[in-house]
Amino acid sequence: MEASIPARQTLSTIQAPTPAIEGTPIADLDGVHVRLGTREVLRGLNLSLHQGEIFALLGRNGTGKTTLMRLLTGQLRPTSGNVRVFGGDPGRDAATRRMMSLVPQDIALYPRLTVRENLEIMAGMAGLSKRETPLRVEEVLALVQVEDRQGDLIDHLSGGYKRRANIAAALLTRPKLLLLDEPTVGVDVEARLSLLRTLRRLRDGGTSILLTTHDLDEARSQADRVGILAFGQMVEEGPVADILRRMFGDSREVVVTLTREPGDSVKSSLGRLGLAPTANPLEWTSWSTGVEGFASLPASLRRHGIDLHEIRVREPGLEHVLAHVEGGQP
Ligand SMILES: Nc1ncnc2c1ncn2[C@@H]1O[C@H](COP(=O)(O)OP(=O)(O)OP(=O)(O)O)[C@@H](O)[C@H]1O
């Protein structure tokens, strides 16, 4: 069996340089370092965001995704390095900050007021005039499709509707860059699809969207580009298909499921056949670039007296990318 890829070291050596990315940059982070307390959270991070794209920021808990958002919104200044958004410094320029909105993970609305009342108050706080407020409120209610619930108290809304109302508030100022911290966490499938449709509509209208998510399927299906944050840097960045091609080429993961947990001698045999253990003691994996690589595997396992329950071939996905980059050295 061919087990060529992806031992971590092998992968690092086959990675090609990131190809040039098209699109008008609207935000640039250049060599950004951030120290919080004794921790160096970001260590020379580089990132460009483009106009009219959905960019999904991925990475384990605590890797600095929220920190990066706070840099973009100017709530946090870098310890060193440069942050430019729409040509300005968000830490210094109020005009730059007004061009973007952050949708936090927590619902930032008054629970005992209706959706409409919340939006009217937020419009006033954002500096919209009394004359333009009603029209803009109507527009954002329509954009996030909460018109039918505008008279309900926030407290009485489901999680999905609360999220939509939260996004509606962020859209009052017509931001050119919308940042969302885990927008779909804890909402049901229907609400999630509706939220994602809203984001795509905004993107198609020219808004740039940066969102954080731990949902890899969502990132793959919705984002024009993803960025993977690990060890204080953007370790991978680009369209998912490009990252997968660059990292895995034609390789596919072969997953072997055994009928029972292997003992030491069977484990040695599996290792000799090029299979590596996974977190599930019944599952062993290898990588192969062609059918020939695994077609003979069932017979080989039988010869070693190993009972096979199932053999599957999997396309590489973002979970493989994350496992690879997060297993690297800081
Ligand atoms: N004020 C602070 N002082 C010290 N450390 C901090 C401070 N704020 C955040 N941190 C640490 O910085 C790191 C990055 O935090 P951040 O919230 O940006 O991570 P994250 O990727 O958004 O995490 P999650 O996925 O859990 O939301 C974490 O280890 C966090 O504990």
UniProtKB/TrEMBL annotation:
InterPro entries: AAA+_ATPase, ABC_transporter-like_ATP-bd, ABC_transporter_ATP-binding, P-loop_NTPase. It comes from the Bacteria. SUPFAM superfamilies: P-loop containing nucleoside triphosphate hydrolases. The keyword Transport applies. Keywords: ATP-binding, Nodulation, Nucleotide-binding, Transport. One of its GO terms (molecular function) is ATP binding. It holds the Pfam family ABC_tran. Residues 27-256 form the ABC transporter domain. Belongs to the ABC transporter superfamily. This is ABC-2 type transport system ATP-binding protein. It comes from Microvirga lupini. The lineage of its organism: Bacteria, Pseudomonadati, Pseudomonadota, Alphaproteobacteria, Hyphomicrobiales.
